């Protein structure tokens, strides 16, 4: 529909039902000659008991500004007859210097972007976050909280995201091409999705629902003063495979015939020295790496094989790594939803104490 002759009138375009995933409707709005402003309303079907149809999306382009700003701004909102107009989302946003605000629109993109690592620089610690494609909110919570530590912003510690299939220990692309495109856009925007090699003295693995006190991890590893053969985390020295087929951690007799596992560190947060990481890389390239269903136990198995091969291994356990929730004084807290991460970060900023949050 060409509405160029209807510059002073509003008009309606009916959008057909049954649009498939990936399809789109494009509307081009030409600013009027007087105000230079225009808006587009996406109107839904009338709700029961309401005379006015709801506005699912009010997209208002104010090229000449408004009461809040004289600069061009885009304002989005919604409307229902019973509740009236909803809260506005503005772009560019106002009062958005605080990167820990709950709303994404109130976060400064520059603060959320990953700090570049100079070519050839060997960082002290590389933290790899295992995340699945659909956990965008978790990744955003991490970007707005513990990725804001000074050591991360200054490039002393690098934090990178690895997309994984959590059912099988592997890092891979998503089978849905549209999801892959979204992940690529995310990687391009924030620069923290791992696409190239980084050299680091130590490598830490964590999950996208874990809150990591980067400063304490960095300090603890430094105090150990162990440059080779280090496995640091919440070490389990006496555990065996789950034989119940209904268990999430079930391992068959064929998968692991022995009664006990070698010492291993729980997955929410463990650190290995560079030599261990490089050995695993070499074994993988030569197909000598024994794959195992449970990623954290697999690391313990590999380190044990290195120990059998003559590597002096040092196991360092730390009870402050909380593997089943959060306890005050934590350095890693597992199973933390985005809202809790924001609360925990605010606690650290306000009191400098690792206090847990019970908010849902």
From TrEMBL:
Per the record, the pathway is: Protein modification; protein glycosylation
Q: Which GO terms describe its cellular component?
A: Golgi membrane
Give the cofactors, semicolon-separated: Mn(2+)
- Superkingdom of origin: Eukaryota
- Residue ranges of the Galectin domain? 11-201
UniProt name for this protein: Hexosyltransferase
Could you confirm whether the keyword Transferase appears in this record?
A: yes
List, alphabetically, the Pfam families matched: Gal-bind_lectin (PF00337), Galactosyl_T (PF01762)
EC numbers listed for it are: 2.4.1.-
InterPro entries from the UniProt entry: ConA-like_dom_sf, Galectin_CRD, Glyco_trans_31
Q: Which GO terms describe its biological process?
A: carbohydrate derivative biosynthetic process
Q: What are the subcellular locations of this protein?
A: Golgi apparatus membrane
Membrane topology term reads:
Single-pass type II membrane protein
| Family matches, as Gene3D superfamilies | 2.60.120.200, 3.90.550.50
Q: Which UniProt keywords apply?
A: Glycosyltransferase, Golgi apparatus, Manganese, Membrane, Signal-anchor, Transferase, Transmembrane, Transmembrane helix
């Amino acid at each position: 529909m060409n509405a160029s002759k209807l510059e002073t009138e509003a008009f309606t375009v009916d959008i057909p039902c049954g649009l498939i995933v990936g399809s789109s409707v494009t509307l081009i709005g030409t600013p009027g000659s007087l105000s230079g402003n225009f808006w587009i309303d996406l109107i839904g079907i009338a709700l029961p008991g309401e005379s006015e149809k709801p506005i699912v999306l009010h997209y208002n382009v104010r090229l000449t500004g408004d009461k809040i700003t004289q600069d061009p701004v885009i304002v989005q909102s919604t409307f229902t007859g019973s509740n009236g107009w909803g809260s506005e989302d503005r772009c560019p946003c106002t009062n958005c210097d605080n990167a820990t605000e709950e709303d994404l629109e109130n976060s400064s993109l520059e603060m959320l972007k990953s700090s570049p690592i100079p070519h050839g620089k060997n960082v002290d610690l590389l933290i790899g976050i295992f995340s699945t494609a659909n956990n965008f909110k978790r990744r955003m919570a991490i970007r707005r909280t513990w990725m804001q530590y000074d050591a991360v912003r200054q490039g002393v510690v690098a934090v990178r995201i690895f997309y994984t299939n959590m059912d099988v220990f592997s890092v891979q692309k998503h089978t849905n091409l549209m999801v892959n495109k979204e992940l690529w856009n995310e990687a391009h925007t924030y620069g923290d999705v791992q696409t190239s090699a980084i050299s680091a003295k130590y490598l830490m693995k964590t999950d996208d629902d874990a809150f990591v006190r980067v400063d304490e991890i960095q300090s603890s590893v430094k105090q150990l003063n162990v440059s080779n053969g280090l496995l640091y985390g919440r070490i389990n020295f006496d555990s065996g495979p789950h034989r119940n087929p209904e268990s999430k951690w079930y391992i068959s007799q064929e998968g692991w015939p022995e009664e006990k596992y070698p010492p291993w560190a729980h997955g929410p947060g463990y650190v290995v020295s560079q030599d261990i990481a490089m050995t695993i890389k070499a074994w993988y390239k030569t197909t000598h790496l024994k794959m195992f269903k449970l990623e954290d136990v697999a690391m313990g198995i590999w380190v044990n094989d290195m120990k059998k091969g003559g590597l002096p291994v040092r196991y360092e356990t730390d009870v402050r790594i909380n593997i089943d929730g959060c306890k005050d004084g934590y350095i890693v807290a597992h199973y933390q939803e985005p809202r809790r991460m924001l609360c925990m970060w605010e606690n650290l900023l306000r009191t400098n104490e690792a206090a847990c949050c019970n908010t849902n």
